Amino acid sequence: MKKIVGILGLSLFFSCVSGTDPMPNEFSFDYKIHTSLPSTWESEFYTIVGNLNEKIKIEPRDYSYQMSVYAWKSTASKPYQSQIGDASGASVSGNQNERYMVLEIPASEFDFAQLHRYSVIPHEYFHVYQMSLSKNFYDGNIELKWISEGGAATIESMYIQQYYGVNYIKDAQNQVNIAAINNPKIFEKYNDSQNEDPNYSSSVFMVLALAKELQKLNHTEEDAFKMIFKDFWLPNPTNGNWKNNFEEVFGISVENFYQSLSNYSSDINSVLPSETILIEDIFTN
Ligand SMILES: [Zn+2]
Protein backbone atom coordinates (compact mmCIF):
# COMPACT_ATOMS: atom_id res chain seq x y z
CA MET A 1 0.00 0.00 0.00
CA LYS A 2 2.78 2.36 0.97
CA LYS A 3 4.51 1.67 -2.32
CA ILE A 4 1.40 2.54 -4.33
CA VAL A 5 1.10 5.89 -2.57
CA GLY A 6 4.75 6.53 -3.35
CA ILE A 7 4.35 5.84 -7.04
CA LEU A 8 1.23 7.97 -7.17
CA GLY A 9 2.99 10.83 -5.44
CA LEU A 10 5.84 10.64 -7.90
CA SER A 11 3.60 10.65 -10.94
CA LEU A 12 1.62 13.60 -9.57
CA PHE A 13 4.86 15.47 -9.09
CA PHE A 14 5.87 14.58 -12.63
CA SER A 15 2.53 15.82 -13.92
CA CYS A 16 3.08 19.19 -12.25
CA VAL A 17 6.41 19.50 -14.01
CA SER A 18 5.32 18.31 -17.43
CA GLY A 19 1.79 19.68 -17.36
CA THR A 20 0.36 16.49 -18.89
CA ASP A 21 -1.86 13.84 -17.36
CA PRO A 22 0.10 11.17 -15.53
CA MET A 23 -0.06 7.77 -17.12
CA PRO A 24 -1.90 5.43 -14.74
CA ASN A 25 -0.39 2.15 -13.59
CA GLU A 26 -3.30 0.17 -15.00
CA PHE A 27 -5.10 0.24 -18.31
CA SER A 28 -8.77 1.07 -17.74
CA PHE A 29 -12.02 0.78 -19.68
CA ASP A 30 -14.95 3.13 -19.24
CA TYR A 31 -18.11 1.08 -19.79
CA LYS A 32 -21.27 2.48 -21.34
CA ILE A 33 -23.70 -0.43 -21.39
CA HIS A 34 -27.06 0.63 -22.79
CA THR A 35 -30.33 -0.34 -21.08
CA SER A 36 -31.48 -2.00 -24.32
CA LEU A 37 -29.22 -4.95 -23.43
CA PRO A 38 -30.63 -7.66 -21.16
CA SER A 39 -29.26 -7.60 -17.61
CA THR A 40 -28.07 -11.19 -18.11
CA TRP A 41 -25.85 -10.00 -20.98
CA GLU A 42 -24.57 -7.11 -18.90
CA SER A 43 -23.55 -9.31 -15.98
CA GLU A 44 -21.94 -11.83 -18.35
CA PHE A 45 -20.11 -8.94 -20.02
CA TYR A 46 -18.53 -7.91 -16.71
CA THR A 47 -17.61 -11.51 -15.94
CA ILE A 48 -15.92 -11.90 -19.33
CA VAL A 49 -14.04 -8.61 -19.09
CA GLY A 50 -12.94 -9.53 -15.56
CA ASN A 51 -11.57 -12.86 -16.79
CA LEU A 52 -9.80 -11.20 -19.71
CA ASN A 53 -8.25 -8.46 -17.54
CA GLU A 54 -6.82 -11.18 -15.37
CA LYS A 55 -5.54 -13.51 -18.10
CA ILE A 56 -4.59 -11.18 -20.96
CA LYS A 57 -3.35 -8.12 -19.17
CA ILE A 58 -3.32 -4.91 -21.19
CA GLU A 59 -0.45 -2.67 -20.12
CA PRO A 60 -1.03 1.09 -20.25
CA ARG A 61 1.00 2.97 -22.88
CA ASP A 62 1.56 6.67 -23.25
CA TYR A 63 -0.47 6.55 -26.47
CA SER A 64 -3.26 4.39 -25.00
CA TYR A 65 -4.15 3.81 -21.35
CA GLN A 66 -7.91 4.13 -21.25
CA MET A 67 -10.77 3.36 -23.58
CA SER A 68 -14.53 3.78 -23.63
CA VAL A 69 -16.70 0.79 -24.50
CA TYR A 70 -20.12 1.50 -26.04
CA ALA A 71 -22.49 -1.47 -26.05
CA TRP A 72 -26.12 -1.66 -27.12
CA LYS A 73 -28.66 -4.00 -28.67
CA SER A 74 -29.25 -3.44 -32.37
CA THR A 75 -32.93 -2.67 -31.85
CA ALA A 76 -31.98 0.54 -30.02
CA SER A 77 -31.19 3.02 -32.74
CA LYS A 78 -27.68 4.35 -32.21
CA PRO A 79 -28.02 5.46 -28.58
CA TYR A 80 -24.44 6.82 -28.47
CA GLN A 81 -24.57 8.86 -31.65
CA SER A 82 -23.36 12.03 -29.94
CA GLN A 83 -20.17 10.23 -28.82
CA ILE A 84 -19.41 7.83 -31.68
CA GLY A 85 -21.52 9.05 -34.60
CA ASP A 86 -22.80 6.36 -36.93
CA ALA A 87 -20.47 3.61 -35.70
CA SER A 88 -22.19 0.22 -35.85
CA GLY A 89 -21.33 -3.47 -35.66
CA ALA A 90 -18.38 -4.52 -33.52
CA SER A 91 -14.97 -2.91 -33.74
CA VAL A 92 -12.27 -0.89 -32.11
CA SER A 93 -12.70 2.37 -33.98
CA GLY A 94 -11.94 5.99 -33.45
CA ASN A 95 -10.62 9.26 -34.65
CA GLN A 96 -7.36 11.23 -34.33
CA ASN A 97 -7.95 11.79 -30.62
CA GLU A 98 -9.07 8.44 -29.29
CA ARG A 99 -10.06 4.86 -29.92
CA TYR A 100 -13.22 3.27 -28.55
CA MET A 101 -14.78 -0.16 -28.56
CA VAL A 102 -18.11 -0.51 -30.34
CA LEU A 103 -20.32 -3.48 -29.45
CA GLU A 104 -23.63 -3.37 -31.25
CA ILE A 105 -25.11 -6.77 -30.40
CA PRO A 106 -27.57 -8.01 -33.06
CA ALA A 107 -31.03 -8.75 -31.67
CA SER A 108 -31.01 -12.06 -33.56
CA GLU A 109 -28.11 -13.29 -31.41
CA PHE A 110 -30.43 -13.10 -28.39
CA ASP A 111 -33.37 -14.62 -30.27
CA PHE A 112 -31.26 -17.63 -31.24
CA ALA A 113 -29.05 -17.67 -28.11
CA GLN A 114 -25.94 -17.43 -30.27
CA LEU A 115 -22.62 -17.54 -28.46
CA HIS A 116 -21.36 -14.75 -30.70
CA ARG A 117 -23.16 -12.27 -28.41
CA TYR A 118 -20.43 -13.17 -25.88
CA SER A 119 -17.52 -14.22 -28.10
CA VAL A 120 -17.43 -10.77 -29.69
CA ILE A 121 -16.21 -9.42 -26.32
CA PRO A 122 -12.88 -11.36 -26.19
CA HIS A 123 -12.45 -10.68 -29.92
CA GLU A 124 -12.58 -6.90 -29.59
CA TYR A 125 -10.72 -6.95 -26.26
CA PHE A 126 -7.90 -8.78 -28.01
CA HIS A 127 -7.58 -6.02 -30.60
CA VAL A 128 -7.03 -3.57 -27.72
CA TYR A 129 -4.35 -5.91 -26.39
CA GLN A 130 -2.66 -5.99 -29.83
CA MET A 131 -2.74 -2.18 -29.85
CA SER A 132 -1.03 -2.10 -26.47
CA LEU A 133 1.79 -4.30 -27.85
CA SER A 134 2.31 -2.35 -31.06
CA LYS A 135 1.91 1.39 -31.56
CA ASN A 136 2.03 0.82 -35.31
CA PHE A 137 -1.00 -1.43 -35.03
CA TYR A 138 -2.70 1.21 -32.89
CA ASP A 139 -1.85 3.84 -35.52
CA GLY A 140 -3.03 1.69 -38.42
CA ASN A 141 0.45 1.31 -39.92
CA ILE A 142 0.10 -2.45 -40.30
CA GLU A 143 -2.87 -4.32 -41.74
CA LEU A 144 -1.84 -8.01 -41.99
CA LYS A 145 -5.39 -9.24 -41.59
CA TRP A 146 -4.71 -12.93 -41.14
CA ILE A 147 -2.53 -12.43 -38.08
CA SER A 148 -4.52 -9.57 -36.51
CA GLU A 149 -8.03 -10.90 -37.20
CA GLY A 150 -7.00 -14.54 -37.14
CA GLY A 151 -5.44 -13.92 -33.72
CA ALA A 152 -8.51 -12.14 -32.33
CA ALA A 153 -10.87 -14.77 -33.75
CA THR A 154 -8.74 -17.60 -32.34
CA ILE A 155 -8.78 -16.03 -28.87
CA GLU A 156 -12.54 -15.65 -29.28
CA SER A 157 -12.83 -19.40 -29.81
CA MET A 158 -10.37 -20.32 -27.08
CA TYR A 159 -12.42 -18.24 -24.65
CA ILE A 160 -15.65 -19.99 -25.69
CA GLN A 161 -13.96 -23.40 -25.40
CA GLN A 162 -12.56 -22.63 -21.95
CA TYR A 163 -15.64 -21.04 -20.41
CA TYR A 164 -18.60 -22.54 -22.29
CA GLY A 165 -17.17 -25.91 -23.31
CA VAL A 166 -18.08 -25.40 -26.97
CA ASN A 167 -15.66 -25.89 -29.86
CA TYR A 168 -16.45 -22.61 -31.60
CA ILE A 169 -13.72 -23.12 -34.23
CA LYS A 170 -15.47 -26.26 -35.46
CA ASP A 171 -18.93 -24.74 -35.12
CA ALA A 172 -18.49 -21.23 -36.46
CA GLN A 173 -15.08 -20.82 -38.12
CA ASN A 174 -15.18 -23.83 -40.43
CA GLN A 175 -15.65 -22.17 -43.84
CA VAL A 176 -12.02 -22.15 -44.85
CA ASN A 177 -11.50 -21.01 -48.43
CA ILE A 178 -9.18 -22.97 -50.72
CA ALA A 179 -7.17 -19.74 -51.14
CA ALA A 180 -5.86 -20.24 -47.60
CA ILE A 181 -3.66 -23.01 -48.95
CA ASN A 182 -3.09 -22.00 -52.57
CA ASN A 183 -3.08 -18.17 -52.47
CA PRO A 184 -2.58 -17.19 -48.80
CA LYS A 185 -1.12 -13.77 -49.64
CA ILE A 186 -4.62 -12.40 -50.27
CA PHE A 187 -5.33 -12.67 -46.54
CA GLU A 188 -2.80 -9.95 -45.80
CA LYS A 189 -5.34 -7.33 -46.91
CA TYR A 190 -9.01 -6.92 -46.11
CA ASN A 191 -9.81 -5.74 -49.63
CA ASP A 192 -8.11 -8.70 -51.29
CA SER A 193 -10.03 -11.35 -49.37
CA GLN A 194 -13.47 -9.97 -48.54
CA ASN A 195 -15.28 -12.99 -49.97
CA GLU A 196 -12.80 -15.67 -48.95
CA ASP A 197 -12.85 -15.18 -45.19
CA PRO A 198 -16.36 -15.68 -43.72
CA ASN A 199 -16.24 -15.12 -39.95
CA TYR A 200 -12.44 -15.02 -40.43
CA SER A 201 -12.40 -18.81 -40.94
CA SER A 202 -9.48 -18.65 -43.38
CA SER A 203 -7.47 -16.29 -41.17
CA VAL A 204 -8.07 -18.57 -38.18
CA PHE A 205 -6.95 -21.53 -40.30
CA MET A 206 -3.67 -19.78 -41.12
CA VAL A 207 -3.02 -18.87 -37.47
CA LEU A 208 -3.72 -22.45 -36.38
CA ALA A 209 -1.51 -23.82 -39.16
CA LEU A 210 1.31 -21.48 -38.09
CA ALA A 211 0.92 -22.81 -34.54
CA LYS A 212 1.28 -26.35 -35.95
CA GLU A 213 4.41 -25.38 -37.91
CA LEU A 214 5.93 -23.80 -34.77
CA GLN A 215 5.24 -26.98 -32.81
CA LYS A 216 7.15 -28.90 -35.49
CA LEU A 217 10.09 -26.65 -34.54
CA ASN A 218 9.77 -27.96 -30.97
CA HIS A 219 7.85 -25.09 -29.42
CA THR A 220 5.10 -26.15 -27.05
CA GLU A 221 1.55 -25.42 -28.16
CA GLU A 222 1.24 -22.67 -25.54
CA ASP A 223 4.51 -21.09 -26.66
CA ALA A 224 3.50 -21.28 -30.31
CA PHE A 225 0.34 -19.30 -29.62
CA LYS A 226 2.18 -16.84 -27.40
CA MET A 227 4.58 -16.16 -30.26
CA ILE A 228 1.67 -15.45 -32.62
CA PHE A 229 -0.52 -13.51 -30.17
CA LYS A 230 2.19 -11.53 -28.42
CA ASP A 231 5.81 -11.86 -29.57
CA PHE A 232 5.04 -11.05 -33.20
CA TRP A 233 3.63 -7.63 -32.21
CA LEU A 234 6.30 -6.57 -29.73
CA PRO A 235 8.92 -5.41 -32.30
CA ASN A 236 6.19 -3.01 -33.55
CA PRO A 237 6.06 -4.17 -37.19
CA THR A 238 4.76 -2.12 -40.12
CA ASN A 239 3.32 -2.93 -43.53
CA GLY A 240 6.85 -2.35 -44.85
CA ASN A 241 8.94 -4.55 -42.54
CA TRP A 242 6.67 -7.24 -41.10
CA LYS A 243 8.16 -10.01 -43.23
CA ASN A 244 11.59 -9.58 -41.62
CA ASN A 245 9.89 -9.36 -38.26
CA PHE A 246 7.99 -12.59 -38.99
CA GLU A 247 11.16 -14.50 -39.83
CA GLU A 248 13.00 -13.20 -36.76
CA VAL A 249 10.19 -14.07 -34.35
CA PHE A 250 9.08 -17.40 -35.83
CA GLY A 251 12.30 -18.67 -37.43
CA ILE A 252 10.37 -19.33 -40.66
CA SER A 253 10.23 -17.02 -43.65
CA VAL A 254 6.80 -15.87 -44.79
CA GLU A 255 7.40 -17.54 -48.16
CA ASN A 256 8.26 -20.86 -46.54
CA PHE A 257 5.24 -20.67 -44.27
CA TYR A 258 2.94 -19.91 -47.19
CA GLN A 259 4.50 -22.85 -49.08
CA SER A 260 3.93 -25.14 -46.11
CA LEU A 261 0.20 -24.41 -46.22
CA SER A 262 -0.06 -26.49 -49.39
CA ASN A 263 0.70 -29.54 -47.22
CA TYR A 264 -2.64 -29.02 -45.44
CA SER A 265 -6.17 -29.47 -46.70
CA SER A 266 -8.34 -26.38 -46.43
CA ASP A 267 -10.28 -27.98 -43.60
CA ILE A 268 -10.30 -26.38 -40.17
CA ASN A 269 -10.39 -29.86 -38.61
CA SER A 270 -6.85 -30.50 -39.84
CA VAL A 271 -5.40 -27.71 -37.65
CA LEU A 272 -7.58 -27.63 -34.52
CA PRO A 273 -5.74 -26.70 -31.30
CA SER A 274 -6.12 -28.89 -28.26
CA GLU A 275 -9.42 -28.36 -26.47
CA THR A 276 -7.70 -28.27 -23.10
CA ILE A 277 -5.36 -25.35 -23.80
CA LEU A 278 -5.85 -22.56 -21.24
CA ILE A 279 -5.60 -18.88 -22.08
CA GLU A 280 -3.66 -18.16 -18.88
CA ASP A 281 -1.00 -20.71 -19.88
CA ILE A 282 -0.41 -18.86 -23.16
CA PHE A 283 0.04 -15.43 -21.61
CA THR A 284 1.89 -16.31 -18.42
CA ASN A 285 5.31 -15.05 -19.49
ZN1 LIG B 1 -11.58 -8.11 -35.43
Helix content: 40-55%
Q: Please provide the ordered H/E string of secondary-structure elements.
A: HEHEHEEHHHHHHHHHHH
Give every kind of bound small molecule, once each: zinc ion
Strand content bin: 5-15%
The rounded Rg comes to 20 Å
The strand count comes to 4
Can you count the helices? 14
Global structural class: alpha/beta
Largest sheet: 4 strands, mixed
- The residue-averaged pLDDT reads 93
Report a brief summary of the structure:
The protein is of the alpha/beta class.
Structural overview:
The longest helix is centred in the middle third of the chain and has 20 residues, at 145-164. The relative contact order is 0.10. This protein has helices at 2-18, 39-55, 81-84, 107-111, 116-133, 135-138, 145-164, 168-172, 179-182, 201-216, 221-231, 242-250, 254-260, 279-282; strands at 28-33, 66-73, 90-94, 99-105. The chain folds into two domains: 27-133, no CATH class; 145-282, no CATH class. Strands 1-2-4-3 form a four-stranded mixed β-sheet, with helices on one face. Helices cover 49% and strands 9% of the residues. Strand 1, helix 2 (39-55) and strand 2 (66-73) form a beta-alpha-beta unit. The chain starts with a helix and ends with a helix. Helix 2 runs parallel beside helix 5, helix 7 (145-164) crosses helix 10 (201-216) and helix 10 (201-216) crosses helix 11. It is an alpha/beta fold and 285 residues long. Bound molecules: zinc ion. Residues 123, 127, 149, 152 line the site of zinc ion.
